[in-house]
């Protein structure tokens, strides 16, 4: 009996065949995996020759370099969280408006980010994030105040 003839098989893929997420879903899965510290899961969504640009910071080229950076972060007491406010796709381009959080113990650095991703065959080939340094400075001050006065600690 074929999969289409078996009502219990509807929506299942043949054994060993993975679904390729669309661009927006691939980006959302990628960011959620990073927030869970699932570096391997995140890297499955990244092309081998990815270009990662945090505008105004050094560019990383290649999945191995990106894996190293996030692998080191996953082994430290520091962490990452994300809230995606908007995500839009046009062809292979995916745009995000989001709040990223970097934290170490009670210190939370929470700031806005706009991201541009290019996705090909379900794999991220370009990840370019834009953020504002003055916003980062304010977030640093707010994070420091939150350490001293926990009720003022930033929350997503």
Automatic annotation (TrEMBL):
What sequence ranges are listed for the domain Limonene-1,2-epoxide hydrolase? 24-142
Q: Where are the bilayer-spanning segments?
A: none
Map out region (Disordered) in residue numbers: 1-22
| InterPro entries the record matches | LEH, NTF2-like_dom_sf
Q: Which Pfam families match?
A: LEH
What is the name attached to this protein's record? Nuclear transport factor 2 family protein
């Amino acid at each position: 009996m074929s999969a289409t003839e078996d009502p219990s098989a509807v929506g299942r893929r043949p054994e060993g065949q993975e679904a390729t997420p669309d661009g927006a879903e691939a980006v959302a899965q990628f960011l959620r995996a990073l927030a869970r510290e699932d570096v391997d899961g995140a890297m499955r969504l990244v092309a081998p020759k990815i270009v990662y640009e945090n505008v105004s910071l050094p560019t990383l080229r290649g999945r191995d370099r990106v894996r190293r950076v996030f692998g080191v972060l996953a082994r430290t007491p520091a962490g990452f969280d994300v809230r995606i406010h908007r995500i839009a796709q046009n062809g292979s381009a995916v745009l995000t408006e989001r709040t990223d959080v970097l934290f170490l113990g009670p210190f939370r650095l929470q700031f806005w980010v706009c991201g541009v991703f290019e996705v090909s065959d379900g794999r991220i080939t370009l990840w370019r994030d834009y953020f504002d340094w003055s916003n980062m400075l304010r977030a640093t001050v707010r994070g420091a105040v939150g350490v001293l006065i926990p009720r003022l600690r930033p929350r997503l």
